[in-house]
């Protein structure tokens, strides 16, 4: 069936939408693929839905290829299973919760670990039933604090989530690798530029976990990779190599100095370097104590938490949040300082935190035997040579400090370089968190129960569409990869002559008969308007039926390269079929 | 790809689920198509999802065939557009409402009239843009008071909803007929037994409206049809023909009688027939006054309402509810009688209702000049010859009385017979309710705005699957129509001999290569278990590879008729391809 622009529900826009921050959002709206109807909620117009279905089907093919079986759950689910695993509470404000007419609690599911585990428990019982991999392609909900960038971060979105169920860790490892390979195949097929990085597992629980990040300048995720090895990780997942502990023996005693007007690291270092102590200080020699407050999900009280880190590094809030998840975290404010007079702003040291029962976690670099220049808990005073393990003992370590380009790679090979990306896939080895919660067992050959181990694997299907647009566009519009283009060929009637219409109709019918999908611009608009729209809409091949037709010629334009080629009308169908089929 | 029972995520059940009231629910659960995961919420297991996708695609084809264009909206929508049309309130408890993290009101959409109207307003502006028909196949939510019968009445379900936008009433009529024909084509293709009946338009608003009801003994809807004409209507939509008004002249005056112990119609009629008044009374001569209370959506107060109807008819609550929609309605209870002493139970008449400001609506049969035996508003007293239009004047008429088989058809031709059905489709001429609310106009050729008129058309996609099961089963299992069967052929290896497995594998591969979809029962179970499961699962054609294979024969069984045929193994693929392709 030929799609006609004259009746297609499509109005392209000349102006960028006011709320569009990134190219994919801007162009998908302008080219009439999506429309915003709510914060983080988008309508898929005909072109957008066509592309979405293509992406969805490619995802489905790759899942089926690894033997995963498709099922589908409701999005509206009762509280109980999520209560049982703690996620009802842990998800915090990110979960849409509601009550039904009887007052029972429900949620709009962000992911379905609980339901898949329960369903496998319900259907399967013998070791012979396993392994099994199930998946769904389904609408998901998250109450994002800041929905943004169009479909890249919405509150209702389409996701493929799959779950593996295995008898043992080796089985889980196999299922994990099968998914890893399926995702590589999937994202390669879509022509995406992406990296696979180590990840934290977030609210899912579990251990081994990697993310597929599409490379994107304006991505929300930052990842680092080593200059010398294949180490790559989301910054949230980077672990700081701890130096070896040092002997406490013979270290000079801690000394308090009066240090007027030194509330910043820079002033402090300058002060001491000017103080003629016989040595030189850098910011890295100072121990900066940052106070935050945290709130566990389901509780209302904020707790103080001290973070100690070398003074040459800032706290990276995303890393800190990832380390403290599922707790919420905020910097303390003036009111908190006022409420806790032992916190001397600019001069906080480990001592008063300990004396006042504030939990104190330090950067992994702060090992036993390291000596620090830090606050003396008294206005205008600092202490030199405060030694970890001698003068203070932190409650533990935390990954909260920023990761910087040039840092040594955690695997010890090379240094780190950073880039930004958009998460398009995530694979987890969940282990037994969910199967423990629901006692999902298989009866073994010896009639003893075997606790099942689980993996969870997601692809953001609608987000992938956004990422495809992000990686495939220029200033004038979208440029779809053939695999997902809404149409194979965009036929433009470039003129008002009836012969042109007739010729274009005939060619479109022939292309359609040859199995290509065709959009035909049969509108009464000027050729200029039609060309602009064709470039904006982004079908990779544009067939222009214009004045040359009188001489038996039509023009084939490659949207990506801009190359144009005059082709004999007699051979153009065959030419295009070859082009499209590759 | 051949689906193997040995790995298919399927466990058939021997026992009926405890909560299953109807055959489709019972069999879809037992055969492993669906699983209940919440009240009115079902998971689609692999077999169920396959059938659902087939139904969905047939619906899509029929919609595309009438030029409708597919788009898709979120299910989670902000309150504002639904507030504007009043539906936020009118839907009452049937709407799932929730708040986001910022406290803003949202709903899970039951239908999308508002969003489609707004989107057309946003994209289109000229008379040249119209007509347009848009649709989506999307998950819908309704907080049903009594979710029941499995997927026949769930709270989360899949629906196709389309909307037509026209410049004038003739256009709307054309779009309506196009949908009517598309639905006929669709339901015929699915082999459903159904009727098209006049319908009320419910909370949608609008005028002309018909329902497609699948014929089903245990359906929730009752419809009637004429013995002599093509009149057919949902009982809720039956209009009672009003007799002609009669002259008031010469009618005898109303007379109050003491009628001790006559709180029921039967006792009352007996009393008067024994009272020797020179005439015979029947229940139809009495005017029964039934008191109900109603509550408008968004209000908290219940209002009394009197319903007057001939004493030989009961109030049909569904008809009454349909007449009063969107108000809620309940019978009054003892507390209400106590609170309103002017309501003399068993002896209520029109007079005290009027005197006490209670709204009073009567059956259309109660026309001016009709004389009634009714309550005298005094314990143990009735009044004879109380004449409508002389002694009392109702506030209007209402369709609340039961419709009975044998009633004269509203079109005057023949009498009514009743049957039950399940609503599978609904077509409405909405008119301008929504386009007025959002001022959806097109600029006409004279540059004057034309208010667009709208139609709305729904098919319950997941419900259709349930109805198909309801109409296609026997005692031992499901029997799918070919168009929607999860597989074309169910191959059973009937024996443990390796040669049988090899033969069945070879045939399955050949069938697969020929383009048929195959499920192969390669489990280690006994032939008896496999046959039972095949019959339960309901693929229309079963290929049994058994002992006959040694003699070059296999058996083809027709699931519906039970007929078995021995076929030479060499010709069976060709035979089955013909069978399946029709």
Describe the structure.
The structure is a homodimer of 582-residue chains. Chain A is α+β, with helices and mostly antiparallel strands and 582 residues long. The first copy, chain A, folds into 3 domains: 3-238 and 418-470, Bira Bifunctional Protein, Domain 2 (BirA Bifunctional Protein, domain 2, 2-Layer Sandwich); 255-397, Alpha-Beta Complex (YbaK protein); 487-581, Anticodon-binding domain (Rossmann fold, 3-Layer(aba) Sandwich), CATH 3.40.50. In chain A, 26% of the residues lie in helices and 29% in strands. In chain A, strands 4, 8, 9, 10, 11, 12, 13, 22 and 25 form a 9-stranded mixed beta sheet that branches. In chain A, α2 (46-65) runs antiparallel to α6 (169-189) and α2 crosses α12. The longest helix of chain A has 21 residues, at 169-189.
Secondary structure elements and pairings:
Two copies of one chain form a homodimer.
Chain A: E1 3-4, H1 23-30, E2 34-38, E3 41-44, H2 46-65, E4 69-70, E5 76-78, H3 79-84, H4 87-90, E6 96-99, E7 105-108, H5 113-123, E8 132-141, E9 156-166, H6 169-189, E10 194-198, E11 209-215, E12 221-226, E13 232-234, E14 255-258, H7 265-274, E15 286-295, E16 303-310, H8 317-324, E17 328-331, H9 334-339, H10 350-355, E18 359-362, E19 371-375, E20 381-387, E21 396-397, E22 416-431, H11 433-438, E23 441-443, E24 449-451, E25 453-460, H12 461-471, E26 473-474, E27 477-478, E28 489-493, H13 498-513, E29 518-521, H14 527-537, E30 541-545, E31 553-558, E32 564-568, H15 572-581
Parallel strand pairs in A: 1-29, 4-8, 15-19, 16-18, 18-21, 28-29, 28-30
Antiparallel strand pairs in A: 2-3, 5-7, 6-7, 8-9, 9-25, 10-11, 11-22, 12-13, 12-22, 14-20, 15-16, 15-17, 19-20, 22-25, 23-24, 26-27, 30-31, 31-32
Helix pairs in contact in A: 1-12, 2-6, 2-12
């Amino acid at each position: 069936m030929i799609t006609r622009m004259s009746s297609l529900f499509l109005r392209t826009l000349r102006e960028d939408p006011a709320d569009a921050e990134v190219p994919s959002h801007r162009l998908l709206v302008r080219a009439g693929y999506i429309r915003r109807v709510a914060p983080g909620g988008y309508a898929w117009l005909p072109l957008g839905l066509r592309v979405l279905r293509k992406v969805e089907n490619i995802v489905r093919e790759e899942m089926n290829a690894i033997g995963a079986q498709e099922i589908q759950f409701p999005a509206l689910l009762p509280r109980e299973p999520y209560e049982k695993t703690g996620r009802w509470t842990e998800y915090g404000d990110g979960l849409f919760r509601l009550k039904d007419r009887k007052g029972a609690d429900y949620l709009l599911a962000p992911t379905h670990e609980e339901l898949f585990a329960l369903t496998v428990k319900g259907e399967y019982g013998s070791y012979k039933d396993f392994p099994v991999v199930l998946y769904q392609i389904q609408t998901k909900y998250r109450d994002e604090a800041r929905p943004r960038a169009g479909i890249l971060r919405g509150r209702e979105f389409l996701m493929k989530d799959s779950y593996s169920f295995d008898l043992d860790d080796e089985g889980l490892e196999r299922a994990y690798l099968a998914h890893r390979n399926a995702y590589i195949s999937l994202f390669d097929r879509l022509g995406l530029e992406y990296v696979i990085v180590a990840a934290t597992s977030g609210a899912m629980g579990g251990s081994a976990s990697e993310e597929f990040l599409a490379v994107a300048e304006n991505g929300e995720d930052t990842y680092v990779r080593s200059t010398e090895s294949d180490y790559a990780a989301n910054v949230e997942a980077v672990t700081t190599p701890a130096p070896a502990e040092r002997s406490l023996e013979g270290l000079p005693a801690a000394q308090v100095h009066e240090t007027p007007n030194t509330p910043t690291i820079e002033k402090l270092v300058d002060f001491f370097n000017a103080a003629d102590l016989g040595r030189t200080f850098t910011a890295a020699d100072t121990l900066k104590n940052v106070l935050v407050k945290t709130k566990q999900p389901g509780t209302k009280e904020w707790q103080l938490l001290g973070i100690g880190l070398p003074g040459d590094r800032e706290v990276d809030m995303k890393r800190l949040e990832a380390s403290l998840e599922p707790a919420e975290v905020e910097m303390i404010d003036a009111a908190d300082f006022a409420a806790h007079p032992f916190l001397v702003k600019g001069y906080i040291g480990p001592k008063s935190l300990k004396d006042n029962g504030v939990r104190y976690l330090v950067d992994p670099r702060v090992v036993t035997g390291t000596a620090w220049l830090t606050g003396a808990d008294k206005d205008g005073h600092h202490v030199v040579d405060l030694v970890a393990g001698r003068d203070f003992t932190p409650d533990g370590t935390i990954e909260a400090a920023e990761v910087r380009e040039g840092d040594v790679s955690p695997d010890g090979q090379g240094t780190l370089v950073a880039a930004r990306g958009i998460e398009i896939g995530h694979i987890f080895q969940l282990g037994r968190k969910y199967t423990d919660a629901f006692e999902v067992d298989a009866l073994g050959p010896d009639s003893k129960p075997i606790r099942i181990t689980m993996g969870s694997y997601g692809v953001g299907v609608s987000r992938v569409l956004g990422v495809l647009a992000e990686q495939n566009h220029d200033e004038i519009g979208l440029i779809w990869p053939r695999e997902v283009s809404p149409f194979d060929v965009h036929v433009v009637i470039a003129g008002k002559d009836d012969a042109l219409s007739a010729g274009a109709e005939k060619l479109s019918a022939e292309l359609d008969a040859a199995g290509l999908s065709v959009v035909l611009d049969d509108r009464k608009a000027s050729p200029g308007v039609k060309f602009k729209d064709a470039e904006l809409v982004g079908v990779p091949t544009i067939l222009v039926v214009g004045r040359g037709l009188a001489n038996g010629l039509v023009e084939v334009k490659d949207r990506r390269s801009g190359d144009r080629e005059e082709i004999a009308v007699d051979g153009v169908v065959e030419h295009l079929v070859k082009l499209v089929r590759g």
